[in-house]
């Protein structure tokens, strides 16, 4: 529930960055330039996420998983609600995009501390033979949050005209976050500490400076985790933010906003369905074999991106979204177990969070921007090449990574 709420907040911004913010916060004669400026603020959160992973990771490894998860949810939620209250460029000029960027930084800070705690809550409570399956539950927050965020935007698009939507309707998804925060806090305040962290507390072996200890004792694991996640991030933000921007742009496919959102939501259903399947496969066959096959498929899919997305045929575009988001489910699902398994308990919150969010900084933060620039300058084929390159880097990291399926978390 917690990751669904936080990813809802995060994706509400991603959708608005394509559909709304270029018009209200970044007025420009060139629509492509306005979109690029909006996507630049989208990237700010990925700069903030490693900062959030270090900050919340410190307290997660020192104070505990429960208190840190509550703090990260509040940070994300307050930032999201404030975005829904911001005046636009027409009202306060250049201060509008600056305040938007500040709130986006707050979103990134909160999500930077969210994922690691949620993944640890699942995996540190899991039986060893089902750890990857348990680790897929926080991963389900991504498709559920995305589905909720875009479902709200789709409903608003159907219920009101364009002028009303740009005037005030776009604020509704951000303000709805206040209700979700209350639900999330109620759930999280009932949690107990995980057995692994409780053992660290009992033995008095907490790290004094978890972040420093991670880089001193587990830097190779941080690097491996970062590059193992790279293709996952590039794939997801090409399939969602970039495809939405390109699909609804007059210079792209020219779909109506509501029409393309429906296609995306169909694809996200397959994302959600394949996440738990990937956990079962990773428990049965191992993390590395599952991810090696999936990443090789992502590389091939990258080479097909240009012809499929650029076809202009709705059935082909829908197939493109289904295939890409199905692969996303298979690559994203096992990460809830893979990254925590690389680190010892005393620094696991910090280590897993930092690796996860450094991958976001290298992969997701710039993916929509780079893809938009490549598509407008050289064509969609180059966007597919960008995805294939990210997949090749991830393949290299997987080939040298250890298999951790049979390792007890206390033995890492």
Automatic annotation (TrEMBL):
It is found in: Cell inner membrane. It comes from the Bacteria. The chain crosses the membrane at residues 7-26, 38-56, 68-86, 92-111, 132-156, 168-189, 218-240, 260-282, 289-310, 316-342, 354-374, 380-400. It is a multi-pass membrane protein. Keywords: Cell inner membrane, Cell membrane, Membrane, Symport, Transmembrane, Transmembrane helix, Transport. Its main location: membrane. Residues 1-408 form the Major facilitator superfamily (MFS) profile domain. GO terms for molecular function: symporter activity. GO terms for cellular component: plasma membrane. Belongs to the major facilitator superfamily. Metabolite:H+ Symporter (MHS) family (TC 2.A.1.6) family. May be a proton symporter involved in the uptake of osmolytes such as proline and glycine betaine. This is Putative proline/betaine transporter.
